[in-house]
Amino acid sequence: MADPPGCCHPCATCLLCLYSCHWITAKKEKRKGLRTTKCDCSWFLFLFCVFLFTLVWLYFAIIILNDFHNFNEFIFKQRKLWLDWSLVLLIATAMLVTYSATLLVLALCLQLCGQPLKLHWLHKTLLILTALVVAAAFTGLGIKWAEEWRSARVSLQATGPFLHIGIVGGMTLLAWPLASFIYHTRNTGLMLFLLLVYCMAMIALYLAPLGITSPCIMEENQLPPKPALVGHRGAPMLAPENTIMSLHKAVDCDVQVFETDVMVSADGVPFLMHDEELTRTTNVQVVFPKRTALNSTAFNWTDLQKLDAGSWFLEQRPFPTVQSLSASDRNQVTEQRIPSLQQVLEAAKQSNISIMFDLRPENHSDYQSFVNATLKVILQSGIPLQQVLWLPDGFREQVKQQAPGVQQVYGRKRLQNEKEPLLHVNLPYQDMSSEEIRQYRQDNISVNLYVVNQPWLFSVLWCSGVSSVTTNACQVLKEMKHPIWLLPSSTYLMIWIVVDCVSFLAILWAFFLLK
């Protein structure tokens, strides 16, 4: 088999060394008469599949970063260990993708150089391990975090047009080694099979935009207003969650609603806390070491005031933004205590910001007394009731009677033939399609979706017409003056045609040049 023009022996020797783990020159390899066997072709196909598998997992890893703080909290509840596992995920994924991509590039270069694809057993073992690791990751995702499959579907609305361009480009480049293989193989059946599969794949890719939909394919004058921002427990990337400092930081980010969680102490004082236990966001292990496993509602207000609700933020660094805090902010963090609902309502009234909250835990035997205590504080605070958004479903009718001015927010979609129409809904962003968002908007129903941290996701929901989003990253979304991308349908059509035409011509050139 003669080497194709432009392939030097030293380069081929280096490629053989890396791929086959044998330091043997290309000339000696040729003299030995070694050829790519069917088994070698099978391993190349496996390598190609593993590369695609890891690439798909990389895409998922990037998408789930929006929700990864929830995973960190889940691990902490299970193991009492705080770590930003997103870094571990990205580093491990990058290593797997880089390894499989490097082997694939080596194999393609060897094919262009007319050298045999003799994959070493060590690479074969590592490829099998790579495939098993990624399969385990997908399995774990499906079992423990199934809603992320719906997140992936949402993400395709943001990335679909660009994924199409990238895949077409990658498949076009694949035409060069494919043409080299076809012109050098003596197996007619295999040649026809590969050509048929490749042609069918390219035709499908060329027609794929017919099935790609995105709310951001629209004219500029059709873009809905920018969604309002709801601070998830305040501004948790800039201050300890559910604290007065977090509320003030949220106000600085132009947040219109402070979203939080309310519990009621053993002596009847409503206070802000998300977790059932105090271990993650306070120093309860130090102050009350024998009571760390108790529910937050088992502590009286006097004991709760003894806890430091800020220092954990500097120690655990739940978000990378903690490192950029100023010295004055760090001092303020260490001074934070668990705030009462009364204190928060006073701060919200002064800042002219609304407050939306859950009342936890809803399965508590004294939940009705929790509702009564919370309503009492709200009515006595003097805050305009229209600034209070009530989320809990328990005893909602009682709340409507005692505080009719409070805005009722529902954590569900509207029902057919509903007696009282919904005015506000609060749902996970995975639970509403763009079409439903548009329909609710036309019917004057305010839609708030949570938790939205990444600009790509905010852009999709903005284009869809959502009213507001709950976010951890208010400082990031505040700066967005426009969706990341917005394409008129005519422009998208032109890009589609140009990309497909350029790809087709490049494939013809590859097969003609290597003939």
Automatic annotation (TrEMBL):
Membrane topology category: Multi-pass membrane protein
Location(s), subcellular: Membrane
Domain GP-PDE: 227-481
Keyword annotations from UniProtKB, A to Z: Glycoprotein, Hydrolase, Membrane, Transmembrane, Transmembrane helix
Record-level GO BP terms: lipid metabolic process
Primary site of residence: membrane
PROSITE patterns in alphabetical order: GP_PDE
Keyword Membrane: yes
Keyword Transmembrane (UniProt): yes
GO cellular-component term (any): plasma membrane
Residues spanning the membrane: 41-65, 85-113, 125-143, 163-183, 190-212, 493-514
Residue stretches in coiled coil: none
A single GO molecular function term of this UniProt record: glycerophosphodiester phosphodiesterase activity
Family to which this protein belongs: Belongs to the glycerophosphoryl diester phosphodiesterase family.
Alphabetized PANTHER family for the sequence: GLYCEROPHOSPHOINOSITOL INOSITOLPHOSPHODIESTERASE GDPD2, GLYCEROPHOSPHORYL DIESTER PHOSPHODIESTERASE
Protein name: GDPD2 inositolphosphodiesterase
Organism: Grus americana
Organism lineage: Eukaryota, Metazoa, Chordata, Craniata, Vertebrata
